Amino acid sequence: MSAKLANIYESLLRKYGEKYTITYKMAPTYINNIIGVDENQGKILLFYIEDRSNPEVADSVSLSKINIKKNNKGDLDLTGSPLRDDCAVDTIDDDIYINDTNLICDNPWKLDEEWHKGISLANARGIICSPSFQLCPAAKESVGSVWFLCLPHDIKKTLLLQYEFTSKGFSRGIVHYKGLISAKAITTQSLLKDHFFAVGVESTSIETKIENIYQIKNNITIRCSWSTVSPLPPLIDLSTCDVILNQTFRTNSCHPLTDDFLNQLRILISIREDILAFKKSEDSDIIREPVYRCGIGIEISEVRENINKAMLEMAEFLPTHSTDCDIEDVIENAKLRRFNDLTDNLWEILKRCSSYKNLKMAFNVLFQSAARSNIVNTPANKNRLAEIITEIANRRLAIPCLSGSEPLELLLEIGLEKLYKDYEYIFVESKICSANDMRTKWARQDHKEDEATVLNVRKSLRNAVFQPENTAIRKTLLQNDRKTSNDQDDLVGFKNSTFDEIASGQALAKLFQIHCTLEHVIMMHINLNLSNVYYEIFDQLLRRAPRTIDQIHDSLIDEIEIPLSAHYIRDNLQGKDPHSRRISITSSDKFRQVKSTFYFNMNNICPANILEIINFEEQMLTKENMYYHWLYRKIISQ
To answer: Is 170 strand, coil or helix?
Structure first.
């Protein structure tokens, strides 16, 4: 769309802005639903009257438009300039889902669209027909649509008028509300008759585009679409249509079986947040002790007992099941299975510590146990804590004295690895993919290093423990070729932690993406039973770029659109009426092109201010499905 449409907006705003509300932005939902998103791919001009007389609408909209970030740390900071507003406010343009789940809008329109009210049809036509509008100097080079929301008080219930500036001139469009219609009354013959009645003569060139949307659940829809030049096309085709599966996962609607994994992800995000907060305080004048706020509490004696038990238990080989297993059963087994690796067990033990002090003490108990015991269950995971335990047990490293955020950093690293292995177990055991597929998808992260460059030799631990003066500190003399994260050229001693802010953020983003993939697969399994396409879904979803997340709010959503073959969904949709239908018939001759779009929906898509419809009783008296019906007619001069 040409930017010159903004010039028309300025001109119309100066002339009509005091009487009407004129906006220049993306089309509202009710327009896109009726005419289709493809018809309005850019911003539009919209005339309407803003009516805020309903206080309930005003309150709900104001809550949905502003999301104030609360300070979870409970620190009251009275410093700062009185001339600067430090309140962190995010403006939400398109997402109507906010933190209070009681305020989530279930209507097919956005909350601020409930303020929209039409202008009189006569005034709208008067503006369109005025020479100042059609002969506007900026209109000559502009491309785009001007829409007028109208009061549907005429006989034909005219709802919208459209004037579109095109490169060849202009085109006109109009939307009528046609009332209620039964599913059986929607036939190809009746739609063609309506279309050609408006055209006047039957054209030899005709094209029909059909889009049927089936609603499986409130958050699951299947869109079937196709186009044809047949003179009498079928209105339902489940054999050759293009199929798009749309699913929305909301974190406040997590499946009960996967809730534990999402909670682990929340804990890991919280740990990383506390690490970054401490590192930020180190750069300031006020240095605070790190905090750990995720544990439910565990006695040190229990920590010691559990650690000793984990170290002395013999690891068992757990074979992969050769038979197909239901994914819900696999998830349940994943939560109850025995962890073979030592650091996986340590994650379950250490994350229960009630505070940073207890966590630091638990690590000290762990290192002392490693130094005094003969470890039977040698850690096999590739993380820094496993390296430290192995070095201590082999008497090649002194007992470390963790400081600062190092306990949190070690806990974060083993937690990331353990949660990844949980997801890997689920996907592999349910036969969705192989372990190699999981590793390949995981390795696509930008921060992932080649395994050949991982630490090959051990380095000395410098100043790891407090020693009396003139006492030699035990060191190793082995070297390492890898540079530090700060790209320093000089070699450094054995570090207690290899925490990296960017790498940890990418790992958390990837884990959240994997969890969302699992949720989508479960939704498909329960509602559609599409077991044959699970790997295809898995592959497509994990090819997406992960999005960075700072917190997992209840309002967080993950929406997907996945193309499927028609034969996968035919049995699920056979004999069912679509929830909504959009049928566009286009015919043309040498003078003009006429397009008729018939839109049907089982729900009213317009707020009460735009189209007030009395609840119909016909649906209660019949077993047939009833549709609200709108007609969009567009005429383009050739």
So the answer is: strand
Report the largest interatomic distance among the alpha carbons of the chain, rounded to a whole angstrom. 106
Q: Among candidates 227, 123, 124, which has minimal Cα distance to 174?
A: 124
Q: Sign (positive/negative) of CA torsion 522, 528, 529, 532?
A: negative
Report which of 347, 353, 247 is spatially closest to residue 299, judged by C-alpha positions. 353
The token pair that represents 253 in the structure block: 């609607």
**Predicted pLDDT of residue 463:** 38
How far is 317 from 2, CA to CA, in rounded Å?
Answer: 65
State the pLDDT at residue 352.
Answer: 93
Reported as half-sphere exposure (CB side, CA atoms, 13 A), residue 509 has a value of 17
Rounded Cα distance, 228 and 307, in Å? 68
Instruction: Flag whether pLDDT at 551 surpasses 50.
Output: yes
Percent of the chain surpassing pLDDT 70 = 78
Compute the distance between CA of residue 340 and CA of residue 417 in angstroms, rounded to an integer.
13
Least confident stretch, 36-40, 191-195, 296-300, 312-316: 312-316
Which residue reads 């003139």 in tokens?
470
Distances (CA, A) of 319 to 214, 232, 315, 425: 42, 59, 13, 11
Q: Can you give the residue ranges of every domain in the chain?
A: 5-53+110-238+576-637, 258-443+500-564
Distance CA 270, CA 25 (A): 37
Least confident of 83-87, 187-191, 409-413: 83-87
Smallest CA-to-CA distance from 587 within 107, 137, 197, 214 is with 197
pTM: predicted TM-score of the whole model, two decimal places: 0.80
Q: How do beta strands 144-149 and 43-50 pair? A: parallel
Mean pLDDT of 511-515: 95
Q: Which residue has the tokens 């008067």?
A: 126
Q: Kindly tell me the sign of the dihedral angle through the C-alpha atoms of 227, 231, 234, 240.
A: negative
- Tokens 């250490």 found at: 350
Q: Which residues of 412-447 are buried (b: 16+ CB within 10 A; e: fewer)?
A: bbbbbbbbbbbbbbbbbbbbbbeeebbeebbeeeee
Neighbours of 356 (CB within 10 A): 19
71-94 pLDDT, tens per residue?
444 443 434 444 334 433 333 333
9 CB-near residues (< 8 Å, 6+ apart) = 22, 24, 45
User: Are 66 and 89 a contacting pair, CB within 8 Å?
Assistant: yes
What per-residue confidence (pLDDT) applies to 480?
Answer: 39
Planar angle of CA 144, 149, 612, nearest 5 degrees: 145
Query: What distances in angstroms separate CA 313 from CA 61, 308, 338, one per listed residue?
Result: 58, 9, 11
